[in-house]
UniProtKB/TrEMBL annotation:
Recorded GO CC terms: vacuolar membrane
Main location: membrane
GO biological process, one term: intracellular manganese ion homeostasis
Keyword Magnesium listed: no
The protein, known as: Vacuolar iron transporter
Compartments where located: Vacuole membrane
Ranges that cross the membrane: 21-45, 57-78, 84-108
Family: Belongs to the CCC1 family.
Keyword Cytoplasm: no
Catalytic reactions of this protein: Fe(2+)(in) = Fe(2+)(out)
């Protein structure tokens, strides 16, 4: 394409030159792996002694907020027009989006939990499965002698 096409290209507007696609893809995957793994790792290793779910949720939320803020700062730094307003606007956009997405999923999860409890899904009616499993282990298999 011509030089005018490059300037009006959405890829160029958001990421830069198309010649740097592999570099962009590498850093996108790397940031996804690093920043995407941090909150689950924090969840897995935090408060293993007390197993306080509220503290785990707070630790994961704080870690996620830090990760989103760092990614927003990196995005603001890479943008063409660098000013304090651009930095603040970009970081605020990503932090607000992350907080709203987290709140909406938390509320949706709370409603789903309440619905599942009200409908009685996943609640054991009786221990039929456990008692039949115990009986199966008591009965000798005919395959034992082979």
């Amino acid at each position: 394409g011509s030089e005018g096409d490059t300037e009006n290209d959405k890829y160029y507007e958001l990421l830069g030159k198309r010649e740097n696609f592999f570099l962009h893809a590498f850093f996108a995957i790397l940031s996804f792996l690093i920043f995407g793994l941090v909150p689950p790792i924090v969840y897995g290793f935090s408060f293993s002694e007390s197993d306080d779910k509220d503290l785990k949720l707070a630790a994961v939320a704080a870690t996620s907020l830090i990760c989103i803020t760092l990614l927003g700062i990196a995005k603001a730094h890479i943008q063409r027009r660098n000013s304090y307003v651009t930095y603040l606007t970009t970081v605020a956009f990503y932090v607000t989006s992350g907080v709203l997405a987290s709140l909406l999923t938390y509320v949706a999860g709370a409603f789903m939990k309440r619905l599942v409890e009200q409908l009685g899904w996943f609640q054991p009616k009786s221990n039929v499965a456990l008692s039949s499993l115990a009986e199966m282990s008591m009965v000798k298999s005919g395959w034992g002698s082979y």
